[in-house]
Design goal:
The chain is about 30% helix and about 25% strand. The protein is of the alpha+beta class. Helix 2 (about 55-60) links the parallel strand 3 (about 45-50) and strand 4 (about 65-70). Helix 3 runs parallel beside helix 4 (about 105-115) and helix 6 (about 135-160) packs across helix 7 (about 165-180).
Length: about 375
């Protein structure tokens, strides 16, 4: 905050609120600027929440002071609260890239603060940048989450069979993850099968039932204390599709190329470009949906996708640093046979180099 010239940072991004205060809810009223005002000097935290959440906030959030909000007057309440504490004359940073509150609510907060003499500044990615480098305690949770994801996908390998629907598979994956100790992930498990799977990368699970010969790609996260580890593997149901098996075998070692090229202190785009070349030298361009990855860590619905990418073309640039966690995706497709074949791994950068947090083979699982 000092480097950015911020006297107060109004944090409204739910994952950032969880990181700073421990507060997590299943619903964030988009009509309210639910959040925390982080005061730089003297250091303090003022928490803003709905009147109906008072008991929950006092039970689950860490703060120095709680200010309660009502619909209709909430933006003005935030501005008045800061003014009454002598904080309205400084520079206040606002997070505009979070899913809540709705943009007009944040605009009303900004207008009220300006009316009290505050300067409004960009407060995005201040907390997110701090969160990028994971502490040993955070890394421990991500390792546990990765082991849970491995366990769930191994369990699914024993259960997949013709007749199961995509929805049943997704629900079973949730069950397997919970049985392994995982919390619910920020996105429900993705299950892609059938003749349109090549086009349905982010489609909702359907009632379509598996048939012999299907290629089924699944995408899940194990979660511990909100920390996510992403994993995707592709299964053959019954008869093995030789094209899918061959495609995955040709690019199974692309993550090793990423490992070889990753260097502490460098931007990840150099290693990412090497991995991308590795895949494109072996797979035709029209059969590649994406080769890349994004930062992972603490996440809440509706997304576990971070704001920095291995290609360094995200919302903020980054470098490999000790404790940096990212996923790495190789998503292939075949329009002729109608399938998606995918592998996703979670990566951890350490002083010793880039580590892959899964023991599962990156091949077509039968």
């Amino acid at each position: 905050m000092e480097r950015r010239g911020l006297d107060v940072l109004l944090v409204t991004s739910p994952p950032n609120l969880l990181y700073l205060t421990g507060y997590a809810a299943i619903w964030y009223p988009w009509r309210l600027p639910l959040g925390a005002a982080i005061v730089r000097a003297p250091a303090s935290v003022m928490f803003f929440d709905w009147t109906r959440h008072e008991g929950y906030a006092r039970l689950h959030a860490l703060f120095d002071e709680l200010v309660l909000l009502e619909y209709g007057s909430a933006p003005q309440t935030v501005a008045v609260a800061l003014a009454e504490r002598g904080l309205a004359g400084g520079t206040v940073g606002l997070e505009r890239w979070g899913p809540t509150p709705a943009a007009p609510i944040l605009d009303a907060v900004a207008a009220g603060l300006r009316g009290g003499g505050a300067q409004i500044a960009d407060g995005d990615w201040v907390v997110d940048k701090v969160r990028l480098a994971k502490s040993p305690a955070e890394v421990q949770r991500i390792r546990r989450a990765a082991a849970m994801a491995d366990s769930a996908l191994l369990g699914l390998r024993e259960e997949l069979q013709p007749g199961m629907s995509e929805l049943e598979i997704s629900a079973r994956l949730i069950g397997l993850l919970v049985e392994a100790g995982s919390e619910l992930a920020a996105c429900n498990p993705l299950v892609s099968s059938g003749p349109t799977a090549w086009a349905d990368n982010h489609a909702a699970r359907s009632h379509r039932r598996l048939v012999d010969g299907d290629v089924v790609a699944v995408d899940v996260c194990g979660v511990v204390d909100g920390y996510h580890a992403n994993l995707s593997r592709t299964y053959a149901v019954g008869t093995v599709n030789p094209r899918a098996r061959d495609m995955l075998a040709r690019v199974a070692d692309s993550v090793l190329e990423l490992q070889r090229e990753a260097r502490l202190g460098e931007g990840p785009e150099h290693a990412a470009a090497a991995a991308d070349r590795y895949v494109r030298e072996r797979i035709p361009a029209d059969q590649i949906w994406w080769v890349g990855g994004y930062a992972l860590g603490l996440a809440l619905p509706p997304s576990w996708v971070g704001h920095t990418y291995l290609a360094n073309d995200g919302l903020e640039r980054t470098t490999w640093q000790d404790g940096y966690v990212s996923n790495y995706e190789t998503i292939l497709l075949d329009r002729q046979d109608g399938f998606e074949a995918a592998t996703i791994d979670t990566l951890l950068m350490t002083e010793q180099g880039l580590e892959v947090l899964s023991d599962l083979p990156r091949e077509l699982l039968t």
